[in-house]
Amino acid sequence: HCQISGLDVIEGIIAVEETEFNKKQRNTGKWQKMAKPHAFTVYYVKKARNHRWRCSDVTFWCVDEHLCNQWIQALKELLEMQKSRPKQLLVYINPYGGRRQGKRIYEQKVAPLFSLASISTDVVITEHANHAKDNLFEVNINKYDGVVCVGGDGMFSEVMHGLIGRMQKDSGIDQNNPKAPLVQCNIRIGIIPAGSTDCICYSTVGIIDPVTSALHIIVGDCQPLDVSSVHHNNTFLKYSVSLLGYGFYGDILKDSEKKRWMGPMRYDYSGFKTFLSHHYYEGTISFQPARHTLGSPRDKDSCRTGCYICKKSEQQLAEQHKERGLKREEDEEEWKVIKGKFLAINAVNMSCACPRSPKGLSPAAHLADGSADLILVRKCSRFDFLRYLVRHTNQDDQFDFSFVDVYRVKSFQFTSKLSEDNESNVTDIGKKRFGQFCRDHPACCCNSANSTWNCDGETLDSSAIEVRVHCQLMKLFARGIEENCKGEDADSQSSVEQLL
Ligand SMILES: Nc1ncnc2c1ncn2[C@@H]1O[C@H](COP(=O)(O)OP(=O)(O)OP(=O)(O)O)[C@@H](O)[C@H]1O
Ligand SMILES: CCCCCCCCCCCCC/C=C/[C@@H](O)[C@H](CO)NC(=O)CCCCC
Ligand SMILES: [Ca+2]
C-alpha cells in the first residue's frame, strides 16, 4: 500500500476540475509571469494519523490551454475507468441516533464531498424506526450502486435487514428456514458514523470519522462481511454482524433503552449498574467449531486490509457455490455441548473494536472468514469480572482467565435452564416459587429469570436461539483496518503525495 503505481495514484484521486483563476487560493507569483495561465486542481485522499483520511488538493498550472485540457481529459477518463466507484447512492439519515447530529454531519461534511466526486444521491431522513428497512423493500434498488446509512449500529442493522431481506424475497428464499442458503447481497452499504457505539464502523475502518468514511465510499472500497442469522423455533428473528450478547451486554442494553435521552452516556450508566448487579444465568450452549478457517481466537495477529485468512474463506466459499447440490455437508459435523452458569455469553462476528474498547471483545476475530468467536464468561467474583473487563481497554489478554473460554464457531444454539425446565414439564412448585422470589429481589445474583439477547444493539424476544454464520453475506464500502506504514505515529503519505 505504500508503493507508487499509476493505478494507486488514480485510486486516491477524488476529482479533477478546471481551476478558475479568480477563485485561486494561492498567489505564488509564478503564474503572474505567464501570458495567459491555465490550471486544473486535483482533489485527492490524504492519509493522516490513526486511519484518518482527509480531502486535500493540488493545483497545476501551464501556459498551454490545449495541454491543460488534455491533462484534465486524461485524468477524468482514468477516473471513469474506476468501475468500483459508486455514481448513484441511496442515503438514509437517522436524525435521532447518537448525539442527534446525523443530519448536520451529512449536510456539512459528507454531501459536499459526494457532490465534488459527482455522486448523485437520493436522501431519506427517517421519520420512525424501521422506516429505512421498510423503504428498502419498495424502492427500485437496481438504480443504486450502494446504500449509505447515517447513524449508529442500530441504523446500520436496519439497512442491512432491509437489503438482505429484499434480496431473499426477490430470490424466493424463506428467511424462516434456518438452513436455507442465503443469497449474497452485492449492493454495498456505507456507514457514516453518527451513533453511540459505532462499533461496525470502527472495526471496519479503524476510526469514527464521517469524512474518512465518506472518502472510503467515494473511492469505491469493498469489504465483505460475515452475517449471523438468528432463529427461534424455525422463526427468523434477526441478523447480526457485531455482537450477540446474553447476560452482561443483554442486561446493559435492556436497562439503557429506558435511558435513551442520555445519549451515548446511557451505556456507561447502565454498564456500571449492570456490573454491580452481577447477575449470572444458567443455560446450555451447543456449537459447531469452525474447522474451515485458518485462524484461532487466541492469535496475536488481527484481521487487517487484504487479510489472507478472509481471502482463503472467500476461495472456499466460491468452491462451495460450485459444488452446491453435489453433497450435503456440515449438518453431520460434531456439536460440542457446554452447560454452566454464565455472567456473559458473547458471540462476535468481528472484533467489536470501538472507542470504549479499541481492541474489542475478540481482538483476533475476522471480518469475513465465515466464523464467529464465542466467548463464555462463567460465574466468577465481581473483582475477577472487573479484571476481565479492564483488559478490554489495555494490552493484556482478556482470554487468559480460568473463567473465560473462547471458541471459533460456525453455528451455535443456546437454551436457558429456565426454558429447559419449562419445556421438560417440570412442575416443581418449589422451584417456581424460588424463581418468583428471585425476580422480586433483583439483588440476588443467582438469577432465575432469563436475560435477553443483545443483537447488534437491539433486544431479542426469545432467550432460546439458533445461530448460523453466513460467510461474506454482504459488503461494505470499507477496506478493513490498514496496517500502519513504517513508523506507527508518522502520517503515512498517500500515493498521490509520494508522486508529487
Ligand atoms: N426517525 C427515527 N425515529 C426514531 N427511531 C429511529 C428513527 N430512525 C431510525 N431509528 C431507530 O433508532 C435506533 C438507534 O439508532 P442508531 O443506531 O442510529 O443510534 P444509537 O443507538 O444511538 O447508536 P449505536 O447503535 O451505535 O449504539 C435504530 O435501531 C433505528 O431503527
Ligand atoms: C472499568 C472499565 C471497563 C470498561 C469495559 C469496556 C468494555 C466495552 C466493550 C464494548 C463492546 C461493544 C460491543 C458492541 C456492541 C454493539 O453491537 C451495540 C450496538 O451499538 N452496543 C452496545 O450494546 C453497547 C455496549 C456498551 C458497553 C459498555
Ligand atoms: Ca467473522
Automatic annotation (TrEMBL):
Record's keyword terms, sorted: ATP-binding, Calcium, Kinase, Nucleotide-binding, Transferase
Domain of life: Eukaryota
PROSITE patterns in the record: DAGK
Signal peptide: none
Gene3D superfamilies (alphabetical): 2.60.200.40, Probable inorganic polyphosphate/atp-NAD kinase, domain 1
Tagged with keyword NAD: no
Domain spans labelled DAGKc: 84-234
Cellular-component GO terms for this entry: membrane
GO biological process, one term: ceramide metabolic process
Its EC number(s): 2.7.1.138
Names of required cofactors: Ca(2+)
Entry's Gene Ontology molecular function annotations: ATP binding; ceramide kinase activity
PANTHER family, sorted: CERAMIDE KINASE (PTHR12358:SF25), SPHINGOSINE KINASE (PTHR12358)
Name by which UniProt lists this protein: Ceramide kinase
Lineage: Eukaryota, Metazoa, Chordata, Craniata, Vertebrata
